[in-house]
Each structure stands twice: as C-alpha cells, then as structure tokens.
Specification:
Blueprint (H helix, E strand, L loop, with lengths): L1 E6 L5 H7 L21 E4 L23 H11 L28 E5 L10 E5 L6 E6 L7 E5 L3 E3 L11 E3 H13 L14 E2 L11 H11 L8 E7 L3 E6 L7 E7 L11 E6 L5 E4 L5 E10 L12 E3 L8 E3 L12 E5 L10 E5 L6 E7 L3 E6 L2 E5 L3 E3 L3 E2 L6 E4 L10 E9 L9 E10 L3
Parallel strand pairs: 1-9, 2-3, 2-4, 4-6, 7-8
Antiparallel strand pairs: 1-5, 5-6, 10-11, 11-14, 12-13, 12-15, 15-16, 17-27, 18-19, 19-25, 20-23, 20-24, 20-26, 21-22, 26-27
Helix pairs in contact: 2-3
C-alpha cells in the first residue's frame, strides 16, 4: 500500500482554514501496526537531483555528520522523538526538534547506496511524477517501510524558509509527514497538523508536529515512561563513557552507533556493541571501527519494548566532546540543588576551561574532588560520590553570598585524551541529616588538542 501526500491547490489553504475547523480534540487515525525496536533505523539514499536539495553546507552540533538533504530528512524524522535532540536547536522555524513525548526514538543509521526494497527503511527520490502526489510511504510497516519523493517537484533542504512558488516544496516538512505514516499514523482533518493530507508550496510549518500528531504517536507507542533510558553526555573515546539515567543493569546493555560510511541497502542494522555492563548511570564501550558521526543510543538487550531504547544523542568521534554533567546532587539545608557547570574550552589550543558550582550554601567553605577513575554514583555522606578512585582534592575556597564559585581548570599536553570527573563538597552545618556536608552532582570533561 502507498500512503500519499498531495499538493494543496492554489487558493484553497485559506478556505480550508475556515471550513475545516476541528470539531473534536482528537482526530488522528492509524494505518495498522507500529514499528518495533528492530525497525527504528532510518537511512537516506541521497539521489535528490535538485541543487536546492543539497545546498545547506552548514554543520550543526545536534546533527553531526549530516548536511544537505540527509540533514533535512534527519531533522524530519527526529521531530517525532521522545525528547529534544541535543539542546533541541537546529531549525529556525520551530522552537525545538524532538516533540513526540512517546516511547519512541528513531535511530539515525547514516547513508545507503540505493533506495533498497520496500522494507529497508530508506528515504530517496523517485524519477517521474504522479499527478498532484508529492511523496509516498510504502507499507505495511510491521517489517519496514520506504519513503519516495517524486523528482518532478523542486525540493529544498532549508533550513530556513523556502520559495512559495508552484513547484517548490520543503524536504523536511514532507519528510516529517511521511515518517508519520511509517510510524503508523494515517491522515487527520485537524487543520495545521503535520498529518493533514495536503500541503501548499513553500509550507515549512509541518516540520513541527502539533497536538493531534503528538496525541497520535503517544497513542501508538505510549506516553514516555519515567523509566526510559536517557543519555545526558558522552566523553572519551577508548573507551567512550556514556552517562545518563535508567541504563540497564543486567549486563546486556547495547550501544548503537551510526555508520561512518555509506552502506548497502541490506546492511545489518543497528551497528551495535552488546553485552555491556552498567551501574545504571554510566556505560563504557569501545567504539567500533565502523562508527562515525551521527548518534549513540543505549538499549536493554533483554527488552524489546520501545521504553527500553534511549533517546538518540548526537555523537561525533572526531570532535572534542562537550563537558557534561551526571549523577545526583544532595539537596542543601536551604533547599537548593548544587550543580556543576563548565565555561571556556576543553581544547588545549584555547585552554580556557573553568569549573563552576551554583546553588551551594552561601559563605561556606568547600573543595572539589577529581578523578580519572570513571563516573560512579556510590552512597556517600548522605548523598552520592560521583566518581571512582583514585580521587584527589583541590585547595579550599569559600562560596560567595549566592552560593557560587568559579575556578580555573588549566591542563597540559599530558592531559589530552584523558577523561576526568569532578564534584564539589562543602560545609552545610544545618543539614537535617546530621552530616553537616553538601555535595553537588558530577561533571565530566575530556581534554582535547
């Protein structure tokens, strides 16, 4: 079966807005079926023939390894994800990319060398036309899907506005609609929804899924569970240390990577390393040689449910990882949550890195711990010690009247390639647990050239 997206005839859009106001709050429809965690992969065969489909050559940290049509289509798919991708930025037409809020996250597997067959989860262009049809999704989806765009239209990769001429259409917006079909959604009569059956030239608004679309994907996959794994940071390379929450502790955690090179349509997916152990908040994994810029994901290898697969986290092994935070802070006697932050650069070329602590107890003395032993979350003085030994400590200091401190972290060439953990410890004499101690969360830095 083919599910189509049609061109909205000129002059009809305004009338539709007036005549098709929704009469109920839910109108989503289903085509039958949903995608298992074995069908979360997405690839692009970049055969788009219009120059305007691949003229975006500006990289973005939330979509490493992607430019042009692949980046636009990646954004289209990841708008359906359970939570914001990276910091959610990357598209000037919407506030956040990643709005689904369901137990669903797509896995960006990279590029394919052909459009493949109907069940290999590849997006590409198809020569020719079919009346007013822009693109279509081939189903059934239970064993995979394929999305094809007709070449007779002029495709644009954005990322901003595109011309509102008769033949110009937005790759990203159309891709977001078509991937909704791949998820299992049919068309809706709700005006302004991504899953409307027709769209006008130049329209970029359907890049952002709306309340009816969100209701549909949550009805299919369930509202995101609090227990769903979540990646909050990555650091290092040999091994790569992934930090977050709700990681599986059954010694069968999997880490999924994006392929670095173009793969055959029938490539084995995902690219994963399995049988890994975790303490619930961190996983160490040796990055496979075939991995490249894209994403990492964590999955419980013993659980096939969508809630067992984490968010996808932007990852580029060639870049210096951004410092990240992890672990849980101890609430102070005054009700604040002390937290670690970093400013400056962890690149030796700049060497401007500084560590901060916010929301500690004002005017009290403190130190910070640091270690190269790896992330942890072990019970300690009423809170958690967020690192493994050997552990060293800084000289003492005093927090200001706002419970804030900033301290330089100079490093040298011998530190490059090393991943280090940090945590603040300070006096809290009025703490009700009797320890008289405060503890921040943890921070992690990999030093680079």
């Amino acid at each position: 079966m083919k599910l189509h997206l049609f061109v909205l005839p000129a002059g009809v859009l305004g009338a539709a807005a007036l005549l098709c106001l929704p009469t109920e709050s839910r109108a989503w429809t289903f085509i039958g079926g949903s995608l298992s965690t074995a069908q979360r992969d997405v690839r692009v065969f970049n055969n788009f023939s219009d120059p305007t489909a691949n003229n975006n050559t500006t990289t973005h940290p939330n979509f490493p390894g992607s430019l042009g049509a692949p980046m636009a289509l990646r954004k289209a798919v990841e708008e359906w994800n359970s939570e914001p991708v990276g910091n959610g930025q990357g598209d000037p037409t919407q506030a956040v990319i990643g709005s689904g809020g369901a137990n669903f996250d797509a896995y960006w597997a990279g590029l394919a060398n052909s459009s493949g067959s109907t069940d290999q989860n590849i997006i590409s262009e198809l020569a020719g036309s079919s009346g007013g049809v822009l693109a279509f999704t081939e189903t059934p989806i239970s064993d995979g899907w394929r999305i094809l765009y007709y070449s007779s239209w002029e495709w644009h990769d954005g990322p901003g506005s595109i011309p509102a001429t008769g033949s110009s259409f937005d790759l990203q917006g159309i891709g977001c609609h078509e991937y909704g079909h791949a998820l299992g959604l049919g068309h809706t009569p709700i005006v302004g929804s991504t899953m409307e059956a027709a769209v006008s030239s130049g329209n970029t608004s359907i890049r952002s899924i709306e309340f009816d679309d969100i209701g549909g994907v949550q009805a299919l996959y369930g509202v995101k569970l609090a227990s769903k794994p979540k990646i909050t940071g990555v650091a290092g390379s040999t091994p790569l240390v992934i930090t977050g929450t709700n990681f599986p502790m059954n010694n069968n955690a999997e880490v999924w990577f994006t392929y670095a090179t173009v793969q055959s349509a029938g490539a084995v997916l995902p690219l994963k390393v399995g049988g890994l152990s975790s303490n619930g908040t961190s996983i160490s994994v040796n990055v496979p040689a075939a991995a490249g810029a894209g994403v990492v994901m964590v999955k419980d290898g013993n659980n096939a449910a969508g809630s067992a697969l984490s968010n996808n986290y932007p990852y580029d092994p060639t870049l210096c990882p951004v410092p990240s935070t992890y672990c849980t802070a101890k609430v102070t006697s005054i009700g604040t949550v002390p937290n670690v932050a970093f400013t400056g650069s962890n690149s030796l070329a700049l060497n401007t890195l500084a560590i901060e602590c916010h929301e500690a107890v004002p005017g009290k003395s403190g130190i910070f711990f640091y270690s190269n032993g790896g992330a942890a979350a072990n019970p300690f003085q009423g809170g958690f010690l967020c690192m493994s030994p050997p552990i060293l400590r800084s000289p003492g200091f005093v927090f200001d009247i706002f419970g804030y401190v900033s301290l330089p972290l100079p490093f040298n060439v011998f530190d490059v390639g090393m991943t280090r953990q940090y945590q603040f410890w300070f006096r809290d004499p009025q703490h009700p647990d009797g320890t008289k101690i405060g503890l921040s969360n943890g921070g992690q830095v990999t030093f680079c050239f």
